[in-house]
Amino acid sequence: MKIGCPKEIKPQEFRVGMTPQAAHEAVAHGHEVLIETNAGLGAGFTDADYQAVGAKILPSAEEVFATAEMIVKVKEPQAIERKRLREGQVLFTYLHLAPDPEQTKDLLASGATCIAYETVTDRNGGLPLLAPMSEVAGKLAPQVGAWTLQKANGGRGVLLGGVPGVAPAKVVVIGGGVVGTHAARVAAGMGADVTVLDRSLTRMRYLDDIYGRDFKTVYASASNTAELVAEADMVIGAVLIPGAAAPKLVTRAQLSTMKPGAAIVDVAIDQGGCFETSRATTHQDPIYEVDGIMHYCVANMPGAVARTSTLALGNATMPFMLALADKGWRQACADDPHLLNGLNVHAGQLTYGAVGTALRLPVIEAKAALAA
Predict the structure, then answer these.
(1) Is residue 218 assigned to a domain?
(2) Which of 87, 139, 264, 323 is 20–30 Å from 214 (CA)?
């Protein structure tokens, strides 16, 4: 198979869809790997690194899209990239369709088969291709939140860990999954007073057993959430419903109860955000203020640490990418129901229920698309 990897064009996105290691594996499997020139530079990989493992360098994204049978990316295709997709082509990347009707419309019109990293599952009920970036984003959240809290950036001027005689900042993490756990660990490691809100008693027991000395857990009722958010210096939104739009858990009205200059970090922004006042921002212009509360809502947070993120993502996606290339998408998905769960769009039809619900569009079952 001809596997193409274009350079990412989303603002300040420095990751790349294929590492030289992944390219090496694909070439060893007998596939042709086509990399757009300079696609890996942001993550520290040169064209020579790819050529050394047998990949071919193409001068433009147009040629990559026109030649490749499967496109491997990181971020959702931008408008110009969606126009380059064609019927029968496979797209393997993050999509986050639920809050993005325009992208969904374009992918349906393209006729391509689109498999989303974020809805591929594993036998334990996890999301193996989302987890690496969730880990990165979770660890980054307290770091960027601490920066947002600095007075020069509009924040309260509070040091996360405090100093002797001065209390540390209060950090509330909404959601105790992969993002929330890593965010809580790092915030606690920075010396903050951390509370994690979640609705799963099983998950909270686990967090309490493992991290009970580092941070507290509280059941995420509406009243508990409101009370803790009002007391917080920083609130990190870390809620995920796989493939679906994130629930709005903090309203605009609640901002008036928060401390002036408090920071909100919405890691769920890729799925629409879990704060009513969230809107996607970029690394170039990451924060904005609403009613005196500073919002950090960068939609590709892991892009800030592009090399670490690219290597972590490449380790996770490589086996699935090779299966798709070795067997073709139909056989690969037939053999692996967890990969089939990643199928979001095929031949003009939507195949993921949560996206259909969010966008009020008709959906067919992925198994039906596979059999068609």
Answers:
(1) yes
(2) 264
Query: In this structure, is residue 124 part of a structural domain?
Result: no
Q: Look at residues 33, 43, 38 and name the one whose alpha carbon lies nearest to residue 7.
A: 38
Ranges of the chain with pLDDT below 50: none
Rounded Cα–Cα distance for residues 208 and 211 (Å): 5
- Predicted TM-score (pTM) of this structure: 0.89
- Domain containing 185 equals 131-299
CA neighbor of 141 nearest in space, from 321, 266, 11: 266
CA dist., res. 123 & res. 338, Å (int): 7
The per-residue pLDDT for 307 is 97
- Kindly state the tokens that stand for 315: 């380790």
Look at residues 248, 279, 299 and tell me which one is the last residue of a structural domain. 299
pLDDT at 11: 86
Give the separation between CA 224 and CA 151, rounded to whole angstroms: 28
Q: Which residues, in sequence order, are bridge partners of residue 250?
A: 275
- Cβ partners under 8 Å of residue 39, min gap 6: 5, 6, 7, 8, 16, 17
Query: How far apart are the C-alpha atoms of 353 and 294, rounded to whole Å?
Result: 34
For the question of residue 270 being annotated catalytic, the response is yes
- CATH, residue 338: 3.40.50.720
State the catalytic residue, choosing from 24, 31, 49, 96: 96
Q: Tell me if 157 is assigned to some domain.
A: yes
**What is the structure's pLDDT at 68?**
98
Choosing from 270, 295, 336, 346, the catalytic residue is 270
**Residue 59 Cα distances to 63, 68, 69, 283, angstroms:** 7, 14, 18, 27
- Both tokens of residue 283? 């690394």
Same domain, 158 and 295: yes
At 78-136, the pLDDT tens digits run: 999 999 999 999 999 999 999 999 999 999 999 999 999 999 999 988 999 999 999 99
3-state secondary structure at position 4: strand
Same domain for 95 and 155?
no
Quick check: is 96 catalytic? Answer: yes
**pLDDT given for residue 372 in this prediction:** 81
What lies within 8 Å, CB to CB, of 14 at 6+ separation is 8, 42, 43, 303, 306
Same domain as 269, residue 216: yes
